[in-house]
Design goal:
Layout: H1 19-25, H2 29-37, E1 53-54, H3 70-78, H4 83-89, E2 98-99, H5 101-110, H6 115-124, H7 133-144, H8 150-159, H9 161-165, H10 170-182, H11 187-196, H12 205-221, H13 227-237, H14 246-259, H15 264-271, H16 283-299, H17 304-313, H18 322-334, H19 339-344, H20 353-365, H21 370-373, H22 382-397
Antiparallel strand pairs: 1-2
The protein binds a DNA duplex through helix 11 and helix 22.
DNA sequence: CAGACCGGGGTCTGCCATGGCC
DNA sequence: GGCCATGGCAGACCCCGGTCTG
């Protein structure tokens, strides 16, 4: 109610940073600004009294500690909440005397959530019931500046209630949208970012800014020329980067820098390209993967230098767990492919072991000669592979 | 045309720790 | 002294198709 009318504003005084965002979603910067700056009240006056669970007893004066609020528990049970789970998660919420579970349920129903989902959301993130109607309206409207429909938001809530409800700071959310837009991330990038890593938008703007500045520093240190562009590239290549700690990302970059003999410029392009995703790994995991990868490759008669070449050409190999990697390589070798061929075309490692196994079997039936025809046939979409298989079998019939 | 090269796209939470505030 | 907000962590790939080229 409070929020809806602002979307009918047609004044287009666009702030440059959010231009792309609003071009797509046909709203205005003023709308966002009003969402960002309007005061947030703890409890909205328009919630019918009956929808709040109020227990007017002595505990209202000393709400801290004490036993659960029994009427609240009943109310939650009716909503299908797993109270045991909720208590385990956030016990304090169950002792609160003033909550908005009914308002929340009505709100979510109105957005298309099923009763089952409402119960599940509260079970997994009980603090959601402390958010006021106004808070919910405003937060939803802010999310809707990025998402195209209520349904998209509902599916995120189903996935991760915490991402939506953890922060009570709507101004911060609005500032995040403005900040991320100002980096030059367009509407599509923001949509992918909020879909994939919704937590990013609950981070404090300050935390996000720190990561961006850190990435810009990395670019500067490695002799890049457009630091902002580098940060943007890393983010759009690795949508999880903003929910990692700078400590982790820094440790990984330092590790890559000291482990290999590669120039700064090569590292720079690696990090903003296919290597961006390996920054996610925990430092120990990255070390372990590299170590096991080296062991594996060396045990098959190759040099350590080959490993380095492999990683530069296909950094994602470090993302593959040691056991998965090992079984993929073994599977390829067993199918008659040489290690040299794998090192030459490491992209085949990207497909699942199951996929590889299946393709090898089908090709073996047709007597496919990898030595003569190479292994590119394994690096194809399903559709293309099937077409290829069809051609091969036609040829062998003739 | 078939093959090779190359880049893009989907996807990810649920829990614990801690500092600050009421 | 408890609750809230927020930072941080573990976990551990796969697939598709546009377009150039011979």
């Amino acid at each position: 109610m409070v929020i809806h009318h602002v979307f009918f504003l047609t004044t287009m005084t666009l702030v440059p940073g959010v231009r792309a965002l609003f071009c797509l979603h046909r709203t205005s910067a003023r709308a966002l600004r009003s969402l960002v700056t309007s005061p947030s009240y703890l409890f909205s006056g328009d919630i019918p009294r009956g929808l709040c669970t109020i227990t007017p007893d002595a505990s209202e004066l000393k709400p801290l500690a004490g036993p659960d609020n029994e009427p609240l528990l009943e109310s939650l049970t009716v909503l299908g909440v797993d109270v045991k789970k909720a208590r385990q998660r956030q016990p304090g919420v169950l002792r609160k005397v003033s909550t908005n579970e009914q308002g929340l349920a009505n709100f979510l129903h109105g957005k298309g959530a099923s009763p089952r989902l409402v119960g599940s959301i509260i079970s997994r993130y009980p603090r959601a019931i402390t958010r006021s109607g106004q808070h919910l309206e405003r937060r939803w409207a802010l999310w809707r500046t990025i998402f195209r429909s209520d349904n998209e938001i509902i599916s995120i809530l189903d996935r991760s209630p915490e991402s939506f409800f953890r922060s009570s700071d709507n101004d911060n959310l609005g500032m995040n949208i403005v900040f991320l837009s100002s980096l030059g991330l367009n509407a599509k990038d923001l949509h992918r970012l909020l879909t994939t890593a919704p937590r990013t938008f609950s981070n404090s703007v300050e935390l996000n800014r720190q990561m961006v500045e850190f990435l810009e520093d990395v670019s500067a240190e490695l002799g890049g020329d457009d630091h902002r562009q580098f940060a943007k590239a890393v983010i759009s290549r690795n949508l999880y980067i903003l929910i990692r700690s700078t400590k982790r990302v820094k440790a990984n970059i330092d590790f890559l820098r000291t482990s290999f003999n590669i120039s700064d410029s090569v590292l720079l392009s690696l990090l903003q390209g296919t290597g961006a995703e390996i920054l996610d790994l925990s430092n120990d995991y990255l070390r372990r993967n590299l170590k096991r990868l080296q062991e594996k490759v060396v045990s098959l008669g190759c040099q350590k230098a080959d490993v380095e070449k492999l990683i530069i050409c296909y950094p994602s190999v470090l993302f593959i767990g040691p056991d998965t990697l090992s079984s993929k390589v073994d599977c390829l070798l067993k199918g008659g492919i040489s290690m040299a061929q794998i090192l030459e075309k490491p992209k085949v490692l990207e497909y699942s072991t199951q996929n590889i196994t299946q393709r090898l079997e089908e090709l073996a039936k047709l007597g496919y000669d990898f030595e003569r025809s190479g292994i590119n046939v394994l690096d194809m979409s399903r559709k293309r592979f099937d077409a290829k298989l069809e051609r091969l079998s036609r040829m062998s019939e003739e």
